[in-house]
Write a structure and sequence with these properties.
Elements (H helix, E strand, L loop, with lengths): L1 E13 L14 H12 L3 E10 L5 H9 L4 E9 L4 E9 L3 E10 L2 E9 L5 E8 L7 H12 L3 H4 L1 H30 L5 E6 L7 H7 L3 E2 H5 L17 E5 L5 E7 L10 E11 L1
């Protein structure tokens, strides 16, 4: 008996509304984001903070992803941006998807679930999630960036530190509850699991350990350096993850691409899936 290997490349990226949240808006940003993705040629693409129009379309994305060979698309929205824009999680796949479900784990937080049929007819269950943010506005983020270089600015706005602490405490509590609900659903999977997520939380946190369970962290296995995925606040923030079942997938490599196209960097995991051939 010999072993035949099927490759699986997964790219997960919080694309920050494809530039919608930027001030001023750069209308070329979606194309730049798609070009970066095209260079990587992932088999499965998970886009967090992706947007569609009110009719469910995104003309620029549809044309690009059709040309890139994606045959399946699923979208789950949890917020809006005005009356005509919906923000949420999207999956594009070159492999068949089935059993799609949106799982409400908080008022404005949904976890996406779908099953991926691999070339050897085995099944992986994919979860995509974006957990509670710290709810910091652009002004607050800019203030934190300034304080990193000049701590005296804290004295100019003494109430800010209390505001930040209150927001952080609320966010930690919300993520804990969301993580517990997500873990319950993940534990019931009849298939090997892959998770693509923006936790808004760091490794070894309660959120991280609860959702991860006994899965493997792709960065921890093959990543290098500090693995920063978020480009603001702290130079060491790794808050985006790909978890996987090592009994079903063999991790060949992991990378995070530094870019200013979003406030997050895309993360990529390359896997081999072995199937026996007589």
């Amino acid at each position: 008996m010999t072993s035949e290997i099927d490759g699986l490349k997964i790219l997960s990226w919080n694309v920050h509304g494809l530039g919608l949240f930027d001030k001023p808006v750069d209308k070329t940003k979606p194309e730049q984001i798609f070009e970066l993705i095209e260079q990587q040629e992932p088999d499965i693409l998970c886009m967090i903070e992706y947007y569609t129009n009110s009719d469910g379309s995104n003309t620029k994305a549809s044309k690009f992803f059709k040309n890139a060979g994606y045959k399946e698309y699923r979208f789950s929205y949890d917020n809006d941006f005005g009356a005509k824009i919906f923000i949420g999680n999207a999956v594009f796949s070159k492999y068949p998807l089935s059993n799609f479900e949106e799982i409400q784990i908080d008022e404005y937080i949904k976890m996406m679930r779908c099953d991926v049929t691999m070339p050897d007819n085995s099944t992986l269950r994919l979860f995509v999630m974006h957990l509670q943010s710290f709810l910091l506005g652009d002004e607050e983020k800019a203030f934190i960036e300034d304080v990193k270089h000049n701590t005296e600015k804290l004295e100019q706005k003494p109430g800010y530190s209390k505001t930040f602490l209150a927001k952080f405490q609320r966010a930690y509590a919300k993520r804990a509850s969301q993580a517990e609900m997500a873990r319950k659903e993940i534990a019931e999977s009849p298939y090997p699991v892959v998770i693509c997520a923006d936790f808004n939380d760091v490794p070894k946190s309660y959120t991280y350990t609860t959702v991860k369970g006994d899965l493997n962290d792709a960065f921890a296995e093959k990543g290098k350096g500090l693995g920063r995925t978020y480009n603001f606040l702290s130079p060491t923030l790794r808050i985006d993850y790909i978890f996987y079942n090592c009994k079903a997938l063999e991790l060949l490599g992991y990378q995070s691409i530094k870019t200013d196209l979003s406030d997050h960097n895309p993360i990529i995991a390359n896997f081999a899936r072995a199937k026996e051939k007589k």
